[in-house]
Amino acid sequence: MLGFKRFTVKKNERGLLLRNGDFERVLQPGRHWLATALSDVRVETFSLEQPAFVHGLADYLMAKEPEVVDAEFVRVDLKETEVGLRYENGVLVELLAPTTRRLYWKGLHEVKIDVLDISRQAEVPAELVARLTQTQMRQRQVAGLIGVLTVQVPEYGVGVLHVDGKVDSLLKPGSYGFWKYNRNVSVELVDLRLQVVEASGQDILSKDKVGLRLNLSASWRFTDVLKAYTQLQKPAEHLYRELQFGLRSAVGTRTLDELLENKTVIDEVVMAHVKSRLVAYGIELETAGVKDIVLPGEMKTILAQVVEAEKAAQANVIRRREETAATRSLLNTAKVMEGNPVALRMKELETLERVAERIDKISVFGGLDQVLNGMIKLK
Description:
Elements lengths: L3 E6 L3 E7 L2 E6 L2 E6 L5 E7 L4 E2 L4 H7 L1 H7 E5 L4 E7 L2 E6 L4 E5 L5 E7 L8 H8 L14 E6 L3 E7 L2 E6 L2 E6 L5 E7 L3 E11 L5 E12 L2 H7 L3 H17 L4 H6 L2 H15 L4 E12 L2 H42 L2 H16 L5 E2 L4 H5 L4 E2 L1
Antiparallel strand pairs: 1-4, 2-3, 2-5, 6-10, 7-10, 8-9, 8-11, 12-15, 13-14, 13-16, 17-18, 18-19, 20-21
Helix pairs in contact: 5-7
């Protein structure tokens, strides 16, 4: 029995007419009376506000219905070395990965696809980078940014571009973007300013088998970044190891006494050892110095005892020197007074004056001579 069924497609929609599950045609907006006798008729509607046509029949339409695709869709069929830039109404809204095959409805939005060949270079064009990085100014985020590596190189540094594990080039300060499709891309930011490295807690044996713990600080900078990263996997780690070797060379060939007598010898040896080995790698060592030397507990006690004994001996020498000088002075005074009665009498009066300063009252019996002979009565 012949029958009809009405289907309605809104103005902002398109309909896909399926008869017995097979595609028949695209329905435009309006009311459609469709014969349903002896067949299963179904209409699927799609809102044009979502321009992407995501359906199991997409591949079929691109392969078998080229006239329908040209009339109703914008077609995307990218190769392995191509990416697509999808614009809606003149605004970039999506980055399409290589090998993308997709259909977008025509009608409500003006959809445009720009195809870029990325086989020759990894760098994203500068004008495109600006649109990708300034996303905060957009009402709608650009989709597909996972396929782009964006990098901001600061004014005081450079960027080392690695492509497929190899150093490719140096990036000057600025904004960059790189396609991550079909290649492994990374950028390492390098600071060109003077940098500081700390080699702390280095346990080293001196020549006389005394265990020491040293803390060293060094300042350095890059002189040729490309040379450094071409020859070394991690330049900063290489510098750290060379500082360790320099410390061992300085401490292991000297006794504890030598190190304590001339503390700057460690700095000099480390500088000479490390600086010569870094020139070939584009790294310059500016300064290197030991901040402190930590001795074992028992060695601290022994050294304290040695210092105490040395200071006691020095005090003994000074005391004896002073006693000798005092005795010599007394001998010289005695010689002067031996032949000079006036000088002897003046010395006696000086002695009497010092004695008088320490007592309140003196009673003298028999004259001054008696006093000088020791007959003094203290009250």
